[in-house]
Amino acid sequence: MVWIIQQEESYSKFLTSSWSDTSFIEFRDHSKLIAVAVTDYVHKGLSAFYTFFNPELSKQSLGTYAILKQINIAKDHQLSWVYLGYWISNCQKMSYKQTFSGLEGYIDQKWQPIKT
């Protein structure tokens, strides 16, 4: 029992931080939970920290849908940007990031547009 509690605490620390407000945006099909987008509210923007979903629904592009929802939330709150996290161009699991316009990278100590 102690091991399970420690795992829960460790996972909670991984998903939340003391320096931002973290929100768990839930996506449901009727009452069934199908995805969660862990989102940090930071100065002038949102950070799309982590999204997880039912792997049986991977063809429904729930990760992309979550990002679109986060973009809409940022617009509703008049926030300037949504940070999608690290991007490695040759990593298949991260390739979805290049489908969004306005992709920027922090290069030479400043944010610059990235051409994909």
Oligomeric state of this protein: single chain
In the CATH scheme, what's the topology name?
A: Aminopeptidase
Secondary structure tally: strands: 6
Name of the level-1 CATH class:
Alpha Beta
β-sheet strand percentage:
25-35%
- Unreliable spans: none
Biggest beta sheet summary: 4 strands, mixed
SS summary, helix count: 2
By secondary-structure content and strand pairing, the structural class works out as alpha+beta
Radius of gyration: 16 Å
Q: What this model shows, in words?
A:
The chain is α+β, with helices and mostly antiparallel strands. The protein has a single domain (18-113), classed as Gcn5-related N-acetyltransferase (GNAT) (Aminopeptidase), CATH 3.40.630. Helix content is 25%, strand content 34%. It contains two helices and six strands. The protein has a four-stranded mixed β-sheet with strand order 1-2-3-4, with helices on one face. A hairpin with a 2-residue loop joins strand 1 and strand 2 (32-42). The chain is globular and about 45 Å long. The relative contact order is 0.12. The model has no long low-confidence stretch (mean pLDDT 83).
